[in-house]
Structure formats: C-alpha cells, structure tokens
Amino acid sequence: MEDRVKLEAAIDQLLNEEKQMRLAGDVSGTRKAVTDILQLCFEAKDWKLLNEQIVNLSKKRGQLKQAAQSMVQQAMQYIDQTPDIDTRIELIKTLNNVSAGKIYVEIERARLIKKLAKIKEEQGLVAEAADLMQEVAVETFGAMAKTEKIAFILEQVRLCLDRQDYVRAQILSRKINPRVFDANTLKEKKQPKEGESIVEEAPADIPSLLELKRIYYELMIRYYSHHNDYLEICRCYKSIYDIPSVKENPAQWIPVLRKICWYLVLSPYDPMQSSLLNSTLEDKNMSEIPDFRMLLKQIMTMEVIQWTSLWEKYKDEFEKEKNMIGGSLGGKAAEDLKLRIIEHNIIVVSKYYSRITLKRLAQLLCLSIEEAEKHLSEMVVSKALVSKIDRPSGTVCFQAGKDSSDILNSWAMNLEKLLDLVEKSCHQIHKETMVHKSAVRA
Questions:
Q1: What is the rounded CA–CA span in Å between residue 149 and residue 176?
Q2: b/e string for 406-432 if b means 16 or more Cβ within 10 A?
Q3: For residue range 6-22, what is the model confidence (pLDDT) as tens digits?
Q4: How far apart are CA 61 and CA 151, in angstroms?
Q5: Both ends of the chain: CA-CA distance in Å?
Q6: Residues of the chain by 3-state class (helix, strand, coil), percent to 5
Q7: Cα–Cα distance between 277 and 261 in angstroms, integer?
Q8: Are 48 and 74 in contact, with CB atoms under 8 Å apart?
Q9: Which pTM value belongs to this model?
C-alpha cells in the first residue's frame, strides 16, 4: 500500500509538470514528463495503471503531437516484456485505440496491428488476423520505409492465402510492382528536401529487398498453383532463379531450375512458353541436369513423342520433386503432363500432314479414335490449332479454309509471277540470239 501511495504521488507530481509544459508549449518538457509517467508504471509492473495513464494522457486538451508520439513509442517497448498474453493484448489494444485516426502515429499503429495479428494467428484465429491486417493501407504511408511497406503487404497476402481467400490475395499482391525488386540497393539515399517527409529506417527484423523478392514470388507460386497456371508459376521460379544469392548456391538453383523445366513442359503451347523454352535451353547451368535438357529438346523438336517411354524415363524424377524445394508439382500435374505430350504430338502431325485419317492420327497419338477426336477438338476450340474433321469420311484437314477474296489474291499473285517469268525468258532468248549472231558474223 505504501508503494502504491508513493507511486500515485509521483505520478500526480509528474502530471502537474506535464500540464505546465503542455500549456507552455514546451515539446521536450512535455515529452519527458509523459515518458517518465509511463516508466514509473512499468517499473512498478502495474499494467492496469499503465493502460489508464496512456488513455488519460492522450485525452489531455491540446496534447502535443510529439508528446503523444513519444508516449506510443515508449509504451511499444514494453509489449514484449508483459507477463502474459492477455496483458500483452490489452496493452496493444490500448495503444491501437489511442493511435487510431492520428496520421503522426500511423506507422506505430501499423506495427501494433501486425503484432496483434501475429498473436491471433498463433492462437489459430487466421481469419481474424487477416481481417486485422487488411484494415491498414500501408501503401499510403509516406514516412514508412519501402522494405517495411512491402513486408507488411506480403504478410497481408500470406494471411489471405492461409485463409484461402484467393481473390483478395490477388488484389493485395497487385499493390506491389515487381520492378521495385530490381532497384539498385547500393545507390546512396537522397537527402530529403525542405518540406518533404522524412522516411524512417526499417526495423532490424525486416528482410532485405532481395529476400522480400523471394518471399513475394513464393507467395505468388502458391496463388498460381491454386489455379494450375503453370506458365505463371514457371515465370515466378525464373525470377527466384535470377536472385544472385540463389544463383551462387548450386544447392538452391538446381531444384529451382528443375521446377522451371517441369512447369515449362506442363505449360500449354504459347509464344511466351516457346520463348522461355529457348532461353532456358541456352542456360549454361542446364548441363548440370542433362536429363532435363534432353526433355526440353524433345519438346522443342518437331517429332512425335511416345508417352509411355517418356513417363518410364522421367517418373522417378517426377516423384523426386516432392522432396525438393517448393514441394510436389500438384495433384493434376501427371495428367496435365500427358495432355501436353498429346497436344505436342497433334501439333507435330499438323506440321507434316495437310490431311490425315482419324484412324492414322489415333495410331500416331497412341489413343483411341474417340480420345484423339476429343483432344483435337479441344485444341481447335482453344485456337491452338486450325483444323476440320470430316466424320463421314473419317478424315482430318489441317489447312485453313480460304474465302473468295483470298483465292482471287492468290490467283493474281500467280499471274504476276507467271508474267515475270515470261518477261525474263524473252529477255534471255533475245540475249542468246544476239550473242549467236555476233559469233556467226565473226
């Protein structure tokens, strides 16, 4: 009781000092009085009184912004030293309420919400943690460091993916421009001009820009895996592969390069996929994984691939991916791989044949006639191929139909070529005649 009386007396004295300093407009004096009050409560381990004094001081008439900011920053240092989780949550909520709607403590409020969300996640309340994080729009905070902003948004995306809210995860991920990861971190920071807001340094626990790049693309891989968008997954792995720390360590880049190869093969035929195939084959590191180099060459070569022999050769490598970085390729991957090989074979056949019977096409694809027709129809619908099926005669035509104007244009071109040839022939005959006449006269 005696200690309690002494504490209250000391706080009352400091409150009087704080009032005098505040009314006089003394910033440093008000700051010191406010922080001293909080320090006394902390040293006495009276957490209830600490919360009361925070609320009380924040509601003082004409309270100085600098004093309120110092009070919040001082109290945030006590969060990790609270005796139990309930006291910690209570202190965070008090500080959160005090800083709500105040632009001069917006960064502190964002950090408080991040701490509270982490506690909620540890308690298994992922949805509640995600809702808390979404309340804060850090992209509008001018004084927050760039890396801290990115880390905060990535945490928002991660929580949305954990609660399987893929639509909101995509919306939040678009707040980050991937080009920001290519910025030169070695450049000297420009000094802020007069009138510009000063950007705070990021806390020590915030990862570097290159580490954030890896986290970003790993989260995007999770998002695209949900939709089985293999080409985008491949591009994400390609971006991770280009990180210097990954490229320098074979233990890291070999699994990533394997994933790039697998997802390239799993991707539907597309100009972007073709470009990535060529660039990956030209990579010198492909010599370290010759089996995958051979796999990509098979896909690039315009020859029919036997699915059974290919699966026997690469089945073990396919299963091995489960223990590699990034985990397995997905539940549908094996089915999709077979589908891509069938599509590749149909494209190869279309290059060599202008017309083929359905029976022969099914033999080349090692499928039944019904399956061959189904896959061919799907490719035509997706506009990956131009083809027509004549069911009564059982033939497939791979030539695109021409309209009357195209036919007339081709005839006109043929006539023009014919006239050019006639003119050249007449010129050559005239030339030979002149040469013969001169030889006879001589």
A1: 9
A2: eeeeeeeeeeeeeeeeeeeeeeeeeee
A3: 878 888 888 888 888 88
A4: 37
A5: 141
A6: 70, 0, 25
A7: 8
A8: no
A9: 0.80
